[in-house]
Structure formats: C-alpha cells, structure tokens
Amino acid sequence: MKNNKTLLISAALLLGAMAPARADILVGFVTGLSGPVSSIGVPNAKGLAAGQTYIGEVDGEKVRVIQLDDGSDPAASTRIARKLVEQEKVDFLIGTSGAPQTLAMATAAIEMKVPMVAVSPIAPVPAGEGGPWVVQTPQPMPLLVQGIVDHMKSRGVKTVAFIGFSDALGDLFYNALLQTAEAANIKVVANERYARSDNSVTAQVLRAVSARPDAIMLGGTGTPGALPVITLSERGYKGPLYGNNGMISADLLRLAGKSAEGIICPTGPITAAEQLPESNPIRKVGLAFRAAYEKANGEAPTDGFSPYAFDGWLVFMDAAKRAKATGAVPGTPAFRNALREALFTTKEVVGTHGVYTYTPADRHGVDSRSRILVQIENGKYKLLP
C-alpha cells in the first residue's frame, strides 16, 4: 500500500510538472487615462473595449486583458510594462497613448522579448534579439504627410510653416514634412514648437506668420492641438491650414470651434467610413467598429484614436489564433515567440485605418489604402476626392 501511495504521489508530481503553465492568453494593455495625453488615452481604452466586444475569443477561449494607466508618463510606461511581463506574465503588450510613452514601452518590450502592438506612432526601434518584436497601427508619418503635400502642390503652395509639439511626435511630423516637401519643391520656412502643457503659443504663431508662408501645417494633436488653431484665427491668419491624423478629435473640434473650419487633415478611412464606396473593405469593418464601440461604451465614437486600439486588437487576435495553432502554451517564452512570428507574417488583416500586412522589414504594414483627406466643415469631417 505504501509503495502504491508513493507511486501515486510521484505520478501526481510528474503530471503537475508537465501541466501547461496557463491555459488562457493574457494581454497587458497600457494607456494614459490621466495626465496630458488622456485625451488620446481614454479613447484608446474605449477602442480596445470595442475590440473585445467585436471579437473576444480565440478558438472558443476567452482572452484576458489587464489594463493599467501610465498617467501619460514615459517612465511609468516602462515601469508598468515591466510589471505586466515580470509579475503578471502577460503574453502580449498593447499600448500606449503618446509617442514618447509608446517608445519607452516598446523599448522595454524588446528587452523583455514580448511582442507588442503600438497604438501611437513611434520612431524606428532596434529589432532586438531574435528579430523585431514591435509593430504599430498608426500609419507612417511620411505616408500621411505626403497626402497633404500633394494637396499643397495642387494649390500652387511654394512655402509652408510648421507649428507643432516640442516632443517626439512633433519631430515625427516635422521630419515627414521636410522629407515630402523637399521632393515637391516646397520650402519649409519656419519650425515653431510648443509643449503640450503650454497655455499660449502667441510667440510661435507670430514668428510663423511673419515668415509669410503660403500655408501652415499643424503638428499638435488632441486638446492641446487646438491652441495654435485658435491663436492663428485670433491673429487674423486667412491662409490654408493643414492638420494631421491626431486632430480627428471631438475635443479639438469643441475647443477650436469655428477656428477649425477649413482645416485639411490626412487620416485613416474610418473617419469617413460611411462616405467610402461599398467596394472598399475598410467600410464594412469601419461600420462594424462603430457598432461594437457603441455596444461597449454606450456612446458613438467621435475620435480617430480609438480605432487604432481597435485595429491593434484585431491584429493581435489574428496573430494569437495562428500562434495557438502551433501548440505552444500561453504563459511561456515559446508562446511569446510564436506570437512574434505570427505577428510578422500578418497578411491583409482589414482594420478601420488600413489593411495590415507586417513583415520583419515593415513594422507599419499599411499602404495608400490607409490614407484619405478630410476637410473640417461645420464641425464635421468631409471626405475630399
């Protein structure tokens, strides 16, 4: 009897050692629910909730999400990402709001060898050991800015001034403008910057206007992006104004009011989903996103940020299904690596902002199908031909 008991205990211990580390897939989602980037972070959170409502299972199994607020602080973004990986043992990371915060989070993800979808635009990051680990859903800045530079050229614009954030996102906008404007023989005559927390940009506006540009491009987003719009109007600027995808925001429209009339912005197709032709595959997903958003949040979407998180969820779920088919067990390095490999073999996943096809050489995954131009008219975004 004693020997039989010993055998049973040994067998139980052996089975325990061989048991899967965890049956469910666990995602760590970081966003800025507070702080200066919360006008982006709150919509990001609502977009992810819409994604979970739209599709919440992989082969009949629920995916668990741990959501944490980084307070719009890059240092907190890093610290929270580490906590999610090292303590919670998440398989995947999604986040966060703001370019500096997202870059900090992505750097930590690469170091810890955890695949990640960035839902804010970031500068290129090192591949890391074993290959790249991070993709992003926001369109590459040169692709977006090329749209407005083409429009400038059609208007006969020869000079343009820039007024944008004094941070990594502002740099992305400005560098994209320099790159595309030069090829179109358009000269950038001013580079004015301001902090997201500033309450005045009068000096920057006066310097930009004094350069007598044919047009002005704005490199601010969310609620802080309204400040130069209002100031330019107060100072009597009547020339063409070009914005960016981060200006697709109900908060910006509310704050800027009539000052925003006429601004032309490059953005993803979701902004004008119902105005797209029936043949466009993004139209169907865009309208489905709106329905899922309303079901998850009890209100209609009014921004361009929540769809980036929604698309990040779709990209992750597509990769998770293929990673799970390899037989790797969630909660293990093998599963993380399977997710990474699946992520970088993503093909034609239709989202709201674009159709995603990632490769180790392409972390953006989108083409010209991900860009439309809209103009603000009567507080709404009208699709331009």
From TrEMBL:
Residues 25-364 form the Leucine-binding protein domain. InterPro entries: BCAA_transport (IPR051010), Leu-bd (IPR028081), Peripla_BP_I (IPR028082). Residues 1-23 form the signal peptide. Keywords: Amino-acid transport, Signal, Transport. It holds the Pfam family Peripla_BP_6. It comes from the Bacteria. Gene3D superfamilies: 3.40.50.2300. Transmembrane segments: none annotated. SUPFAM superfamilies: Periplasmic binding protein-like I (SSF53822). Belongs to the leucine-binding protein family. This is Branched-chain amino acid transport system substrate-binding protein. It comes from Bradyrhizobium algeriense.
